[in-house]
Design brief:
The complex is a heterodimer. By secondary structure, chain A is mainly beta. Chain A starts with a strand and ends with a strand.
């Protein structure tokens, strides 16, 4: 079945360091979404990428969709303590989104 | 602004009890979803609905049932709670016709079954 894997599963960074999470799909995706879930909270939509090779930026966050539309990445520049949480990618399935396994980010002040 | 409400937010209950987790939304979205999520782990789809009188089982085998009598409400019922049901349950809605659009999540219900 369709799978969306993310690496790494956990990442600890010092505040100010950069962070990247990678998302890989077993199938070609028509689009990919990214969500952030703060500890104890619920997932919140960040962005959707549709085009092959697309790059979008939101302040310190850079999202990229691979040329083959089977992988994606989220890069955070100069992490802050407010970036703490789990980041999920999600790709469309037959009836729903398939959420990735998530990357839990810890930022050490 | 997305308004999705889930009640209760926290529930501790004994084995064998019947419980209903409520999810309601004020946005008029047709598509609604229930996910089960252990802390910090991936989301597992357990039920979804494309509109009134439409309900389907998701990818994760679940002993729960759902109903969709009104657009606004999508309650989840466990007939006989077990400790293996301890988890967080998230309700979500999607606007528009396709399921590729952004999902709006409710605050979740944290369920503990003793």
């Amino acid at each position: 079945g369709q799978q969306v894997m993310q690496i790494p599963q956990y990442q600890h960074v010092q505040e100010g360091e950069d962070f990247t999470t990678y998302c890989n799909s077993s199938t070609t995706l028509s689009n990919i979404q990214w969500y952030k879930q703060r500890p104890g909270g619920h997932p919140v939509f960040l962005i959707q990428l549709v085009k092959s090779g697309e790059v979008k930026k939101q302040k310190r966050l850079t999202f990229q969709f691979g040329e083959a539309k089977k992988n994606s990445s989220l890069h955070i520049t100069a992490t802050q303590t407010t970036d703490v949480g789990t980041y999920f990618c999600a790709g469309p399935g037959a009836n729903n989104l398939f959420f990735g396994t998530g990357t839990r980010l810890t930022v050490i002040p | 602004e997305a308004d999705i409400y889930q009640t209760p937010r926290y529930l501790v209950i004994g084995t064998g009890k019947k419980i209903t987790l409520e999810c309601s939304q004020t946005m008029g979205h047709d598509k609604m979803y229930w996910y089960q999520q252990d802390p910090g782990m991936e989301l597992h789809l357990i039920h979804y609905s494309y509109g009134v009188n439409s309900t389907e089982k998701g990818d994760l085998s679940s002993e729960s049932t759902v109903s969709r009598i009104r657009t606004e409400h999508f309650p989840l019922t466990l007939e006989s709670a077990r400790p293996s049901h301890t988890s967080q349950y998230l309700c979500a809605t999607v606007p528009g016709l396709g399921h590729n659009n952004e999902q709006f999540f409710g605050p979740g219900t944290r369920l503990t079954v003793l």
